[in-house]
Amino acid sequence: MKTVTEFPRQVVEFPDMGIVMPDGCRLSARVWMPEDAGDDPVPAILEHLPYRKRDGTIFRDQLTHPYFAGHGYASIRVDMRGNGDSEGLMDDEYSEQELQDACDVIAWAASQPWCNGSVGMMGISWGGFNCLQVAAKQPPALKAVISLCSTVDRYADDIHYKGGCLLTENFGWASTMLSYSSRPPDPLIAGDNRWRDLWLTRLENQSFLLPLWLSHQHRDAYWKRGSICEDFSAVKAAVLSIGGWHDGYRNTISHLVTNIQAPVKGIVGPWIHKYPHYAGPKPAIGFLQEALRWWDRWLKGVDTGVEADPDYRAYVMDSVRPSRWHPARPGRWVAEQEWPSPNIKVEAIELIAAGAQPAIVASPQSCGLAGGEYFPFTFGPELPGDQRPDDALSVCFDQPPLAEAIDIVGAPELLIRVSSDRPQANIAVRLCDVHPDGASELISYGVLNLTHRNSHESPEALVPDETVSARVILDQCAYRVPAGHRLRIAVSNAYWPMIWPSPEPVRLDLSAATLRLPLRPLAKGNEVSFQAPEGATPWATGTVRAANSERHVGRDEKTGIVTLSITDDFGAVRDLAHGLANGSIARETWAIHPDDPLSASGKTHWTQTLSRKGWSVRTETSAEMRCDAQNFIVNARIEAYEGGTLVFERDFEETIPRALL
């Protein structure tokens, strides 16, 4: 990445600009703007997050916000209430209070003498979600958003449920937020006599959100609120949607470009859950330059040509050897002027011949361990590995070797006729690229709780041994399968630890299956290009502890339990400007017996540390989730230490009825 130090306008930074909400709650914002903005007002750009601007997102903030400011914007990074250096309490993700706070910040920014009255909003993940939801509320000053790694549907395409199946990331994310929100404000910002009171109040009122999310197992009003797919027409601001093929949120770009009537464009690269100017696998792109083109057009009225950009720009990845991490993905950029594209043709492939015996799907509960993380976050061993171990536990439909290469661009589907011997059953479908030597690379996958085959709102129990029709939609993808390779469609009724298992072992009889494969004419080379990545001066830090990520799969030969253990040590660094050192370690353990779905369990343990000179704090959070046939049993614990002394402890324990449908 090229570091830019000279900008058209000189930048001034405010590390703690207070923004007081109508109810008196003070939010802390870090603001960069041109030093002459008072004389020559500029548009504002808001990023509104719970992830702590002081030590959480500071790496990416340093690259991004000063860059925007240097090109004539007031770039505002706000800690949401109840997090970081802001006052107040947070009770859930995307709450009405959170979204109203963002609207109030937008109105505040637009009214400032240094602002020209136009505001944009951007973010990745949580910030990508809430900028779309805020856009649907239509605050008058909001003219444009840039949403990365986000969703339009909080139930069907987030970290909670997928295809009506319970994602284990539901538990994992609740554990993560329990840890993230347990940290105190910085005494240098909140004040030596005040930070501790704010911290203890925050801890005393902190929620463990898993029981809330588990209490809404169907697509009810809780999930519909904030899902902009309920009314795409509510979004009037211009939307630039960006995502990555190695991220969990790869479908949103297509959904937005297809459905929003406001100006909208989409870009999908080969990336994990990161901003694309520093993301991996490479190639990264000049995201900040693309963002400026968007902001300049919609916030300044400059003709930058963005309206003539193709609606959908996607990176078609070449076939590679399976690996848990790819530093780079060879491929090419393709462009579709309109999306859905008339260039995409669907080829139907019958997998089971008429009159053939049904394929029996009865996978061990441990099938799925090669699937990787739901949304890879570290530049480490989180991608799907060689699929052969999972293929061996699935029913596989192998196609003949390809005579010519094909480009798959879009969302594959599998149409099935199936019966189950139990009233509830999950099904997982993987589309794989099989190399001539048998190596199996995951292209895309989809899962479906078969009781949700007709509706996520009103599931219907399966009648044992009665055949039903269903459609399994796989995630969007853009992938070239070379000549000589085979396509493999692998079907299982377990996908651990991606989804929580059915309450009983299940046998599925698959009597018909048709793969619908979206194919695009073979791209000859890059059809569109991007500038090389740029960024402002990187965050200046000293390393206290190096980062390290590990994954281990083990089988206890006595008990039969299969365990996946993950340790992500994010390391510890000290800020060379204000002296705050921060570090974190996440540990996860997922265990299951291949024959017993009720043996499933997940455990997490997070450690967070903050220190400066003679001051130090540490939080330890732990959580566990298990089940029986009728209930989910969850518990969690927070411990908070100041200078090595325990100052707060709290336990959570709850049993949530399991919706068998």
From TrEMBL:
The keyword Hydrolase applies. SMART domains: PepX_C (SM00939). Pfam families: Peptidase_S15, PepX_C. The keyword GTP-binding does not apply. GO terms for molecular function: dipeptidyl-peptidase activity. Residues 292-539 form the Xaa-Pro dipeptidyl-peptidase C-terminal domain. InterPro entries: AB_hydrolase_fold (IPR029058), CocE/Ser_esterase (IPR005674), Galactose-bd-like_sf (IPR008979), Xaa-Pro-like_dom (IPR000383), Xaa-Pro_dipept_C (IPR013736), Xaa-Pro_dipeptidyl-ppase/CocE (IPR050585). Keywords: Hydrolase. This is CocE/NonD family hydrolase. It comes from Mesorhizobium neociceri.
